[in-house]
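Problem: given the chain below (246 residues), write out its structure.
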Amino acid sequence: MCGRYANSKSGGDMAALFEADDLIAGAKQGPGSRSSPGWAPSYNIAPTVSAPVVRRSKSRDERVVELARWGLVPPWSPDPSIGTRMFNARIETVATSKAYKRPFSSRRALIPADGWYEWRKLPDGGKQPYYFTLPGGVVFAGLWETWSRDDTSLLSFTVLTCPAVGEAIETVHDRMPYVLPPERFAAWLGEEEADEGELLAGPVPQLPRNLEIRKVGRAVGRAGNDGPELIRPVDAEEGPSTLPGM
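Solution.
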């Protein structure tokens, strides 16, 4: 699964990186959002928080980067609360699920991130967080949707997950976000032709050996905590990773 991630990039940086129009400045938040207007880089993004997504805007006929609430809210939902349970979509069922098949067919998004966190279960019953990252950051495959009632409208998103790849990742958790390489961005956004098999091919083979896995402090478990200290490794004398295969 993916329930926490970091993104320290500014709206302008993301607009340049993805060749997109920056719609973040001055954006208003949807109902139930826990973040303030605009975008402040965060090292502890949790479900229900608004975060940047990159999507293809039909009305503008271009890529845009804008804020959306994490936790997909389908248009048929009576209220936005369903989004608290729909922050991840499984790659195995996304094309057929009632909630996800419509956005998968035409409303796919890129979710910029520096990296993500997973928790490893310990023998004593506790959980140890780890941070996963690549040089320059990662991009998750996501879906977006719009929801509206009366005068209220909400843009929301979900992150696709897939089975963990590589022994080191599997040691922490059996699932991970579906990380897209740059050569798949255009197809995922619907700018290039691609069939379902190509879109859902899974992570590229080199991902596990390029990924850095850091054992980090447990402060990230509290949603109110934020700052670059959350991604700093603990037990640094052991190196970037203490897991097998790394």
